[in-house]
Amino acid sequence: MDLNDAYRITDPDALQALYGQPSDASIIKEVDYVHPHYRAFIEASSFVILATVGPDGLDASPRGDPGGFVTVADDKTLLIPDRRGNNRIDSLRNILADPRVGLLFLVPGVGETLRVNGRASLSTDPNLLARFPMNDKPPRSVLVVHVETVFFQCSRAILRSALWDPASQVDRADLPTAGRILADLSAGTFDGTTYDRELPQRIHKTLY
Questions:
Q1: Of 52, 56, 76, 77, which is closest to residue 142 (Cα–Cα)?
Q2: Which domains does the chain show, CATH number per domain?
Q3: Mean of the pLDDT values across residues 166-191?
């Protein structure tokens, strides 16, 4: 896609002129600790997106468990259990190289989201792992996040997307299956049919 350079924004002043000044509310809402009101959002959230950056690039990956799975250890510290997955560990590799992280908390049915920026480290302290069992299994590790900024995001994006509206849900059958994607990307060398057939049971057995 060719873009007209005459319309490319390249400096902060031009960007600010385009969007104007932030409202008082958008400034007041940002703090450098987990306020009790923000703690309520974290403890109600069952889904968070973890954004990281490292020498090999960027990563944004989902984390989910029953509501309250992210623990507020104190007003400057969050604890996030890291469950088993596909073992790519892109986010974790990034954290080892660059501890900066961004978190986006979603609460089912709620329009506002919560954003947390900070620095993370990884721990396998047995006492820490023991705090987060699921199905009698501890997480592989725990992300310890030192909070630097916290603020809520208004509900516009959720309302525009109708994310929580059951009428907007997409039928899974309307999209390609995981096996179909893998088969096509591998030019047919990957057995996508078998992958799709075995996937539901495999996920069930390896959820934790």
A1: 77
A2: 24-161 (2.30.110.10), 170-205 (no CATH)
A3: 97
> Residue 32 carries which side chain, given as an amino acid letter?
D
Residue 27: band (very low, low, confident or very high) from pLDDT cuts 50, 70, 90: very high
Place of tokens 């620095």: 119
Q: For 162, list phi and psi in degrees, rounded to 5.
A: 55, 40
d(CA 146, CA 101): 9
Please enumerate in sequence order all residues whose Cβ is within 8 A of that of 111, keeping only pairs 6 or more positions apart, or say none.
154, 155, 158, 159, 164
Tally helices (H) and strands (E) across the chain. 8, 7
- Rounded distance between C-alpha atoms, residue 170 and residue 172, angstroms: 6
Would the pTM count as exceeding 0.85? yes
pLDDT tens digit sequence for 112-152: 999 999 999 999 999 999 999 999 999 999 999 999 999 99
* Residue 51 to residue 59: CA distance in whole angstroms: 6
Average pLDDT of 15-38? 97
Q: Any residues with CB less than 8 A from the CB of 117 and at least 6 apart, and which?
A: 100, 101, 102, 103, 147, 148, 149, 150
Tell me the sheet residues that pair with 168.
none
